[in-house]
Design brief:
mainly beta, Maltoporin, Chain A, 5-stranded mixed β-sheet, 4 helices, 53% strand, disordered N terminus, transport, cell outer membrane
Length: 781
């Protein structure tokens, strides 16, 4: 076969053969899957868009774009959207840049169907992402249900499965895909979905730019990007950014430093990529505050509460086409992560009688924990485009091994509160925990898409996961920590697609996933020896793995060239779901993890986008019915319905706290002239129940829903110079997006400590008030 010069995507990488021509089905129209997450092919894009030449077309014929979805962790050929049995949403990096979102999570909240956020930590870079009722959170102890990948590497930190959104290099994002359901090929923890992020390269992002901005709350940021080609086979990309933010509330300032670089080699058959990145961030949180503090909603409950996140990583990936129908891809990675947390807490034993008979009058403790994790692994994936029983078929085979060594240390210091509720140490820090963990995860998977006809296709997939968590006490004082836990399971998936016309696709799917208990859950699972998060480890009784089972049916399509739409109906049931059960009220960090039976998230989502000349409108509606499906008992003494022992009974049908039933989003873009864009985001979110009110019976009831308006505008002064502005919370609404039931110890004058007269209250995570920022971006070729 005669080799042709490398051009756009893999359109000219190989001459199509019969096995390839029918798998991709010729020329498909590009369609939007999410509310306004449009996907278009880019030259040489790494499997995020593929536009092969049809067999009957001349070599230089331009054909309509084919949207291709990465339905497995690794980059590769991908699967044409019309054959994907899921409501996948795809976001391009330039769409994030166009809205000038300060954080990735802010963009997801405003633009992705069924995504919601909460501010339990009180810092904009430490928000929880909730998707269809499943969470990816930076907070240890939060039940995690989403897997997040960066260039094929899973970045849920092995210790606790947390996701630190502040460590993702936002400027380097080429595309993000949100894949719903319990897709087994993405491996452990994919209970409700996966987020796959791919980064830019110098061939598709040549030239550079510098971007500076500033505005409310002392926020100042600067960013630089540069990409280009060296010779005919090498390209490079680099970006770095710094941000300083005093924060809108007391004690929630941020300092972020990020850098990312990539060097690639490409020829007609092979791509080899070496990328490196790092971050050094300091994030202060203001926590949730009691309702009685709302006279000054910017104050912190207690402080300090500081997270120092540091990461450095290197990834070597490659793909090679042995023939037009055989592609092999692989990844090697190493990642070093360090988190230091300093938190101020009320002494849970204040006022109680100590062993020596004295009353414990220590008001507070300063807890300091350090987590250091070295993770590494490799994966390999083979894609075969062939015939099966005379029908077009695409088979993917893959294997992955991921390993991690973590060292967790915790020390505690007795402290007293100042009048401003800052903690001042009254003694030395004393070690309470010194533990090491080792995680070992193996997986083998397959995915096969068979096209019965041009209208009907079936996808079969499955993955066998084997996971081991080893916990060891390094102090010699907590031998109950020592343990080894092994979990394994095969998770299947099946899906059908029907494409009667190029403008309409319908699908139905069933899939299963598994989340094995994390080391922090296993080491804090004894109800007779509650631990303090994210602090002490005590013992490691067995926990069962969480099993998810998802059904989904849906449809998508487009009307003419300007309108796209999608709809989906889904239900995900978790067996042996794991919850953190508080021992002294939901706001207390003292408690333990336990399996609580079944929970369910089910609902539907609708989305559409259209363009009328200079006006673009996108809208979405999502409904989530998230409920417990088993009866269990929880300690929640701050709940007004608790019995004399401080317990509540959670019944089947009770709503899961923190998950809104209804979310409505709208995005409007207007171009009065070609150089100027005005954008508006409107978000409505319905009420939620507070954590600790799992039985939905607390006298405070649920916290109210809210409606927000954000604005952004961009004006291109020249082809190189751009100025922009953003406004968040235009109407300056006072609202809360998370709530927790707890015990307020600060009922003295001016909210000072009064441990003898505590009050049960609803604690609120307050959203940011109105903020305005302006920026300037200068680009060069």
């Amino acid at each position: 076969m005669k080799r042709m010069p490398r051009k756009s995507v893999i359109a000219h990488r190989f001459k199509p053969r019969a096995g390839l021509r029918l798998v991709f089905g010729g020329a498909f129209a590009s369609m939007t899957v999410g509310a306004w997450a449009q996907t278009a092919s880019a030259p040489d894009a790494p499997a995020s868009a593929v536009a092969p030449v049809a067999a009957s077309a001349p070599p230089n014929t331009e054909l309509p774009t084919i949207v291709v979805v990465g339905t497995t962790p690794l980059l590769g050929v991908g699967t044409p959207l019309e054959k994907v049995p899921a409501n996948v949403q795809t976001i391009k990096g330039n769409e994030i840049q166009a809205q000038h979102s300060a954080t990735v999570t802010d963009y997801l909240q405003k633009n992705v169907v069924s995504v919601d956020i909460n501010d339990a930590q009180g810092n904009p870079s430490q928000t929880d992402i909730n998707y269809r009722g499943f969470t990816a959170s930076p907070l240890l102890g939060t039940p995690q249900g989403l897997s997040v990948f960066l260039d094929g590497v899973r970045i849920n930190e092995p210790f606790g499965d947390v996701v630190n959104w502040d460590l993702i290099p936002q400027a380097a994002i080429n595309s993000m895909q949100i894949i719903p359901g319990s897709n087994p090929t993405f491996g452990l923890n994919t209970l409700g979905g996966a987020v796959a992020v791919t980064t830019k390269n110098g061939r598709t992002n040549p030239g550079g730019n510098i971007d500076v901005s500033g505005g409310s709350w002392g926020r100042k940021s600067a960013q630089i990007e540069q990409g280009g080609v060296i010779g005919s086979n090498l390209d490079y990309y680099f970006t770095a950014n710094v941000t300083n933010d005093n924060g809108w509330a007391a004690q929630n300032s941020s300092r972020l430093r990020q850098a990312f670089g990539k060097l690639r080699y490409t020829d007609a058959d092979t791509t080899i990529s070496l990328s490196m990145g790092g971050a050094d961030n300091t994030l202060n949180g203001s926590q949730t505050i009691p309702r009685s503090f709302l006279d000054n909603y910017k104050q912190a409950y207690t402080f300090p509460d500081t997270n120092e996140n540091q990461v450095g990583y290197i990834t070597l990936s490659g793909e090679h086409y042995f023939s037009p129908n055989v592609e092999l891809s692989g990844t090697l990675y190493y990642r070093h992560y360090r988190n230091k947390n300093v938190s101020s807490n009320v002494n849970d034993n204040y006022g109680e009688t100590k062993d020596d008979g004295d009353i414990d009058l220590t008001q507070a403790t300063n807890d300091q924990s350090v987590i250091v994790t070295d993770s590494y692994g490799a994966s390999l994936q083979l894609t075969l485009l062939n015939k099966l029983f005379g029908k077009d078929n695409q088979l993917v085979l893959g294997a992955a091994g991921d390993f991690a060594n973590s060292h967790f240390t915790q020390s505690s210091q007795a402290a007293q509160f100042t009048d401003s509720r800052a903690t001042v140490g009254t003694g030395p820090f004393v070690f309470t925990t010194d533990a090491k963990t080792h995680n070992e995860n193996w997986g083998i998977y397959f995915e096969n898409t068979l096209s019965f006809t041009e209208q009907w296709s079936m996808t079969l997939a499955g993955r066998y996961n084997w996971a081991r968590a080893t916990i060891g006490d390094e102090s010699g004082a907590q031998p109950l920590l020592d343990g080894r836990h092994t979990f394994s399971r095969f998770n299947p998936a099946v899906g059908f697609n029907w494409n009667p016309t190029p403008w309409f696709t319908a699908y139905a799917t069933y899939n299963e996933g598994m989340r094995s208990p994390t080391a922090i859950e296993l080491a804090c699972a004894d109800p007779n020896a509650p631990c303090s998060l994210p602090n002490d480890f005590i013992a490691d009784p067995e926990l069962k793995p969480v099993i998810s089972r998802t059904f989904e049916v849906g449809a998508r399509g487009h009307i003419g060239k300007a309108t796209t739409w999608s709809a989906a109906l889904y239900s995900t049931t978790l067996s042996d779901d794991i919850q953190f059960v508080s021992s002294q009220g939901a706001a207390s960090t003292l408690g333990y993890f336990q399996n609580v039976g079944k929970t369910r998230r089910q609902g539907f989502e609708l989305a559409g986008r259209t363009q009328w000349g200079p006006l673009g409108v996108a809208a979405s509606y999502s409904y989530v019915n998230a409920t417990y499906r088993s009866t269990w008992t929880e300690s929640s003494a701050s709940n007004s319905s608790a019995d004399d022992n401080g317990n509540i009974t959670v019944h089947s049908g009770d709503r899961i706290p923190g998950i809104p039933s209804n979310t409505v989003k709208m995005r409007v873009d207007y171009n009065p002239i070609s150089r100027w864009n005005i954008g508006t985001d409107l978000i409505y979110r319905s009420n939620i129940f507070a954590r600790g009110d799992e039985n939905n019976q607390d006298v405070n009831g649920s916290i109210a829903g809210y409606f927000l308006i954000d604005l952004d505008t961009t004006y291109n002064v020249t082809k190189q110079l751009q100025v922009y502005a953003t406004v968040k919370n235009l109407l300056n609404k006072r609202y809360a997006n998370v709530a927790i039931l707890g015990e307020n110890f600060f009922n003295g004058p001016n909210h000072t400590f009064n441990g003898a007269d505590t009050v049960n209250e609803q604690f609120l995570g307050i959203g940011a008030p109105r903020g305005v920022w302006v920026g300037l971006r200068y680009a060069w070729n």
